[in-house]
Design goal:
This protein has 373 residues and is mainly α. Helices cover 57% and strands 0% of the residues.
Length: 373
């Protein structure tokens, strides 16, 4: 059968379904593709009152912008070991943005994806993109359900180890970006949408935390003797990052993404404290990350395992963190009010929200790459 390439796609929600047209259908907000800052997506220009905040956190925001260029560049050359195309990556980013429900991200990634040619119409190509989309949606929505079979399914459709690492980094990054954007929109007092009948995925089963399962590689790690110069440089740069440990041997399959992630980790880490640790524990409890929950829960372990919402009533930090992890699209200024009533300033609040957002990325990485069940 003759294989064909579609010049565009005429969909928004289902990335794997395309049909040939002589002209690509225009995206809903075409100008969203040309925003200079592809991390904040124009928020810095709109939020004039938050300029001191942007200046204070500029190192971390610049690092995040750099990662967006690494994972989602304007042009991309594939190889035998790195087979994810730019279409694959932007389709994945749009899937994660839709799960998060943050419209600003959906507009941007939809507009960037629209003019790209989709995969050919062979059964193998359709199955490959469908599997990538299903995996990204599951990891973004309920990472606790990702297991060894999920990784095997990616391998079965031809993804290499570097592809799988890049895919997980991409899902994690857009999850992080969605929560940073939602946080800033809440600080700006922007209205949020509300879709009746839509509820967040269930929190991870408390049974996940009843056993002390050791973290293990989900697939073959990089061997030191075969590591490239870029991989060795990235691993050297990561030395001293607490908790990275054996995960670095998987993450280094994509050395550029690891370097960018580690840079952001260090810059966000400059603002970390006990409050940030509790925020990370809340994220880990909701998503089901045993590794991070064990590290950060501390004295709040029993309360978080028993009832997160009840714990949030006595500790507003937990309630705010839980809302941002579960439903960033509904995160609004009203959710920040308990912290403001307690005397928190804008900088302190954003430090907390940054920690929650980054935890949403990190938890997904650890769970997909090592806590497979």
């Amino acid at each position: 059968m003759e294989q064909r390439r579609s010049p565009g796609h005429d969909q928004w929600f289902y990335e794997s379904q395309t049909r040939p047209h002589t002209q690509a259908t225009a995206p809903l907000v075409p100008e969203a593709a040309y925003i200079e800052d592809r991390f904040l997506l124009g928020l810095q220009q709109e939020a004039t009152a938050l300029q001191p905040l942007f200046s204070r956190f500029q190192p971390a925001l610049l690092a995040a912008r750099d990662i967006s260029q690494i994972l989602l560049p304007d042009n991309l050359t594939i190889s035998l070991t790195h087979t994810l195309t730019l279409y694959d990556r932007l389709s994945t980013a749009l899937t994660v943005a839709q799960v998060a429900g943050v419209q600003r991200l959906c507009n941007h990634y939809s507009a960037r994806l629209n003019p790209l040619p989709g995969p050919d119409s062979s059964r193998e190509s359709n199955n490959r993109l469908t599997q990538i989309t299903q995996y990204a949606r599951q990891l973004a929505m309920q990472p606790a359900l990702i297991n060894a079979n999920s990784i095997s399914a990616l391998d079965a459709v031809g993804l290499t180890e570097p592809d799988i690492v890049t895919l997980n980094q991409l899902v994690g990054f857009v999850s992080y970006q969605a929560r940073v954007v939602a946080s800033l929109q809440a600080l700006m007092g922007l209205p949020v949408r509300w879709i009746p009948g839509v509820s967040p995925p269930a929190d991870a089963d408390v049974a996940f935390f009843a056993r002390d399962a050791a973290w293990q590689h989900a697939f073959k790690p990089v061997e030191l003797r075969y590591a490239s110069a870029d991989q060795l440089a990235a691993m050297t740069f990561c030395q001293g990052i607490e908790g990275l440990d054996e995960a670095v041997w998987l993450l280094v399959h994509d050395a550029q993404a690891l370097y960018g992630w580690a840079t952001l980790h260090q810059r966000i880490g400059e603002h970390h404290d006990e409050e940030a640790a509790l925020a990370q524990a809340t994220s880990a409890r909701i998503l089901g990350c045993q590794r991070q929950f064990a590290r950060h829960a501390g004295s709040q372990r029993k309360a978080l395992l028993a009832d997160i919402d009840k714990a949030g009533e006595t500790q507003p930090l937990i309630g705010v963190s839980a809302q941002l992890v579960r439903m960033p699209e509904r995160f609004s200024a009203a959710h920040l009010q308990p912290l403001l009533n307690a005397g928190w300033g804008t900088e302190r609040i954003f430090t907390l929200l940054q920690a929650v957002a980054f935890a949403s990325w990190q938890d997904r990485l650890w769970m997909a790459l090592g806590e497979t069940r």
